[in-house]
Design a protein that fits this description.
The structure holds two protein chains of two kinds. Chain A is of the alpha/beta class. Helix content of chain A is 33%, strand content 24%. Chain A is built from nine helices and ten strands. Classes of the chains: A alpha/beta, B mainly alpha.
């Protein structure tokens, strides 16, 4: 596997990324990469900078310093639309749903299908959305009610379906299972494995150790805006990971890796 | 469950609108009884429809402003300013009404974009921006003609405001009704076919027929009433007043924008969750500016109808109209928290308010009492809104 990784360019390479909000250095000189079919878990305390880093990749925040390479080529990501063009999809912790609109409208929000008269093609969106929702949850019927009335799992399905429908090559998942029950958590886990098998690269922000060890190939830990280290998940123990998150201490005798 | 009730539940019927329609009908019946049949006379219905048009035209777009979590307190002042400007260009400067109106349109869009840009680009709350505008543009309305009333004499232009010659006549009214009825049937038919071709479940036929039949009955009833009203000194009945026609076209166009265009959907998405709208890549600032530009267009239309109706532009034109416009939107079910509201709701809201006002006028209720009651009606509408949302599980 490592030979393949060394010859193919990384799907995403973020180099020396920096971001300040006022006087606070939220992300400080962080370099991180992601390969096709790989799940990289991004760990750290609240405020460690992991969500900010991912929001820059998703175009939600402009990047202050550093550069992003997609498939080895420099990418200019300044807006969410730029990121979408690069095949980057995000599932935010807040899900980024307009609660007053229905599931179909939310799936296509910002990327509506249009008829040849440039009006909304509601029927086609409705039909396409039902297929995607069905793939994720066989019992999802009420696609035309405002999403505020849906259950947490159904809302998650809507957010995830954006990534699936628009064929994400790079997927950012920000605590996707935080608000879910066991059944829905298993659904998300299966989906991650399925997308991984299809060659999608996934950044997984999480606090959940079973998710980290069950789903990720590598893990990267951030603290106070800086990268503590990146390791193969199989190389480190849960205690060592916690040591990195809490104390910012790199485990002794373990080599860092920036490839598979 | 009973299949009849089940299909009613699954059909996308806006029950709040249905209820408001029922409230309007109840108000009309009560006033009709109290006024010994005067309220539902063709003459009174004609006047109510015509009087509501200006507030109704502006309310349709203010619904969208409120849906997008903004407010505009300056609509009355801007309408006064633009109205006086158009009248001055016609009377004092001697312009034809078309270039005068276009100049008014340009100024109105400029004013709206100025206020919209302060809100969208700099993030100044629209409440503050338009509160300033409420005062400034009332002042500007005075400055345009130095406070002098500007008469409007163009015969064609005057018809736009309704009045003596301001209706389209019996024949055209019936033709228009026929076109609307055919369009409603055709649209429903096309929707059923499209849904079927995509495998999306349809309402049962009887339900769709009912959904079409109600507006058809309303349109035919309205046209019949307008065609029954004859000004005593004329030899033919009036038909649909032109201001109402303009209002109708505005409401249809805005409903189309809301339902069928990206712009309309983005306005609602921004109102429902501004952060989400930005995260999915909606150009929030651009949409906000476009929304304010649209407001400018409709304020101009309202200003034209208004000065044509008064046959003059005065510096007090549209004073405190913002209150009635916002009240119409809120009575029509628009949530001030943003994210929900409907154009048709604003039409009903404006009609409810005007009907109560006119009804009390027929009953010789004093102006003080009328204001007290209309204010409380607004509160009743909001209380109803709060309870309705609680019952249906929609957070406000």
């Amino acid at each position: 596997m490592s030979t393949v990784a060394s010859t193919t360019p990384a799907l995403v390479e973020m180099r020396q990324i920096g971001k300040a909000f006022g006087g606070v250095q939220a992300v400080d000189d962080v370099s991180i990469n992601l390969y096709p079919g790989e799940v990289v878990a991004l760990l750290g305390h609240n405020g460690a900078g992991k969500s900010t880093l991912m929001k820059m990749l998703a175009g939600a925040y402009p990047i202050d310093s550093g550069e992003v390479l997609i498939n080895g080529e420099k990418a200019h990501i300044r807006t969410p639309v730029d990121a979408q063009r690069c095949g980057i999809e995000s599932i935010y912790q807040t899900l980024a749903l307009a609660d007053n609109l229905d599931a179909v409208a939310n799936l296509f929000l910002g990327r509506e299908l249009l008829t040849r008269w440039n009006t909304l093609d509601d029927h086609r969106m409705d039909a396409d959305a039902r297929k995607v929702f069905h793939r994720l949850n066989k019992n999802f019927q009420n696609v035309r009610t405002p999403v505020r009335r849906l259950s947490g799992g159904q809302r998650q399905v809507v957010a995830i379906s954006r990534a699936i429908y628009f064929n994400a090559r790079i997927l950012i998942m920000d605590e996707p299972t935080a608000a879910l029950g066991p059944e829905e958590t298993a659904m998300v886990g299966n989906l991650v494995r399925q997308l991984k098998a299809e060659g999608v690269g996934i950044f997984l922000i999480t606090h959940d150790m079973p998710d980290v060890f069950g789903l990720s190939d590598r893990l990267a830990v951030m603290k106070n805006g800086k990268l503590v280290g990146a390791y193969r998940t199989a190389d480190v123990t849960e205690d060592e990971v916690l040591g990195m998150i809490i104390a910012g201490k790199q485990p002794e005798g373990k080599t860092q890796t920036h490839s598979l | 469950m009973n299949p009849f009730l089940n299909s009613l539940r699954q059909a996308a019927i806006d029950w709040r609108l249905v209820m408001m329609g029922a409230v309007l009908a109840a108000i009309a019946l009560v006033f009709n009884v109290l006024s010994d049949g005067l309220f539902l006379s063709p003459e009174n219905l004609y006047n109510i429809a015509q009087q509501t048009a200006v507030v109704g035209i502006v309310a349709t777009v203010v619904v969208l402003i409120i849906v997008a979590r903004h407010i505009d307190l300056s609509v009355g002042s801007v309408m006064g300013f633009v109205g006086v400007l158009i009248a001055t260009l016609m009377y004092t400067a001697g312009w034809h009404w078309v270039p005068a109106s276009l100049a008014g349109l340009a100024v109105a869009i400029g004013v709206s974009l100025y206020q919209g840009a302060l809100t969208a680009r700099l993030g100044v709350p629209s409440f503050v921006v338009t509160l300033g505008g409420l005062m400034s543009f009332r002042g500007a309305a005075f400055l345009v003609a130095d406070g002098k009333t500007q008469p409007v004499n163009d015969a064609f232009f005057q018809r736009l405001g309704g009045g003596y010659d301001g209706a389209i006549g019996v024949g055209p009214s019936w033709w228009l009704a026929a076109v609307i009825v055919l369009a409603l049937v055709a649209l429903t038919w096309a929707r059923r076919r499209a849904r079927a071709s995509y495998g999306v479940p349809n309402n049962p036929l009887w339900l769709d027929a009912l959904i079409v039949l109600v507006p058809v009955a309303i349109v035919l009833g309205f046209v019949a009433a307008m065609n029954a009203y004859q000004v005593p000194s004329k030899d033919a009945p009036q038909g649909i007043p032109i201001p109402v026609l303009i209002w109708g076209v505005v409401a249809v166009v805005l409903s189309f924008i809301v339902r069928r265009t990206r712009f309309g959907r983005y306005v609602f998405a921004m109102g429902g969750n501004p952060e989400a709208a930005a995260l999915v890549g909606i150009p929030v600032r651009k949409v906000t500016l476009m929304l304010f530009a649209l407001l400018g267009v409709l304020i101009t239309i309202a200003a034209i109808v208004s000065i044509a109706r008064l046959n003059a532009g005065t510096n007090s034109l549209g004073t405190s109209m913002e209150l009635f416009v916002i009240a119409a939107a809120v009575i029509g079910g628009t949530a001030l928290a943003g994210g929900s509201g409907s154009i048709l709701g604003s039409v009903l809201g404006a009609l409810i308010m005007q009907s109560i006002d006119s009804g009390m006028l027929l009953l010789d209720v004093s102006i003080g009492v009328r204001y007290v009651i209309i204010g409380q009606v607004l509160i009743v509408a909001v209380v109803f809104d709060v309870i309705y949302r609680r019952l249906t599980g929609d957070a406000a």
